[in-house]
Please model this.
Amino acid sequence: MTTQTFLKPGLAYSEDAVLYTGNFVTVNETQPVASAVVVKDGKITFVGTVEQAETFLANESISYTLNEEFKGKTIVPGFIEAHMHPLGAALFTARFGYGGQIERTAGGGQILPASVTKEELVATLTKFVTAHDEAGKQGEWLNLWGLDPLLMTDGTIVDRDFLDTICPDSPILFMHASCHVSVVNTLAIEKAGYSTDDNPAFVFQKEGRLTGEVAEMPDILRSIQAGAFDLGTPEDAVAAMIAYADSTSRLGVTTMSDCGMGVPQNPYPLYQALSQMPIFKSRLSAYPLVPNFKAEELAEFKAASNDRLFANKVKYLNTDGSIQGFTAALKEGEKYFNGKESGHFQYSDEKMLEDVFYAHKLGYSISFHCNGEGCTDKLLDLIEKMQTECPQPHARHCLEHNQMVTPEQMDRMNKLGVVHNLFGTHIPFWGDVHATQTVGPDRVKTLNPFQTSVKKGVPFSIHCDDVVTQVNPLFMMWGAMNRQCVFSGNVYGEEECLTAEQALHAVTMGAAYLMEQEHMIGSIEVGKLADMAILDQNPLEVDKQDVKNIAVHATMLGGDVTVHAVEKNKEAELETA
Ligand SMILES: [Zn+2]
Model:
């Protein structure tokens, strides 16, 4: 592997040794459980029983504090989300109107309601229009996010005409949950300059008229360049990120990723500032986009890494689209279950190779966006070509999503040393849609083939892709263990369910391995950073339907403990009483 260095501390850690007791589930197969852990200087210095820990501390002449506040709790490694877009999620939540079909929680616990019928969506969007106009912003961009038309239970079509009826006098950009497609109204079409001369594969038309749907970043960016999705000042971004990390910390997450850093602006300076702030409750693994960043810039990011912010691998986005947007590239000659044509690749094979080869030659592992089965083939061809011309035996090139991967393709991945990050929340949210519209009732059972990945020995994690779906590792574990759609209750592909142990591994060590930081995070093991999620119940012991309901009592980040929920408030009341 390319980066095994233990990164320098991003923040000063407490030098006091603390002996914690509790039910530790370590995700370290040589020592799977423990009843005591010693934490010092932000790291784990001992794992074992209380007696063993006391002997260790005495032998080493280390003075310590005994902390039994987690007695009776289950303590697992801090959760790691290896594919998400935290800045987008933070800013969208803080600044734009949520018009999605899945309920979300914002900072401070505020609920953003789901709108699944025309009536509900019109009511939700009308509120945003009214607020927009009352703020005197008529004529300025109205920014909305979270739309998934396939989850509209009455089949409402959200196009330019729909948006025009809600608001004809301000330009609207309504981003899909997938972020691969957006919808704009007529005024926005004029402002951004979309026309019927554009490529209809990306700027959709029907009978010679634009529908308002725009697919993929190069064309969506034209709206953004015309003023949509104003992300505010750097101070707005700092505040949004701190609030967002607070919400993910409450869900037990200790390391987030930015799986595609650099669009539309480079947030690395922002991330560097956040990594120096104790109030920012997370580590962050940033994957700079290629070819957007040059070799020297990638080297600068890497050199500036510390254990709260690291940038040691890169991301390539310009491949295919999304399955639920019908823009994922299927196998040649295949169509979607409802008859829609396969999606297209954004660029030629030559252009894709040119875009990523420099990063491969420099020894970076590349995460490739990849949804359709045809895209998996295409990218394995590309990786094979790179590895033949310039062997990089330690590279862990990763196919992100890789939802339609087949057992045969996994054999090929193993030969090429390719890993993947499967979509942990797709079956729970889009299972019904996949069964009835995108891939059909049989193929849905093998979408995101978790268990086959275990059997084939392909290293993997599972991810939420926030902003696509909200980061919530215990919910994602439930999804991978049950493969049940929350809308119908239908189960799709029982054979591909993970056990609780496998699901826990996927959201801890599995994700650390994909980030190439498995020597530093991912398990409760001597020498690693003291990152842990303290749970009210043991996910390996509760009924598998209940895993998503387990409360996160506290989160430890480098030995720094944040207690969540009710108990903390009670203590605060007692202190002030
Ligand atoms: Zn993503």
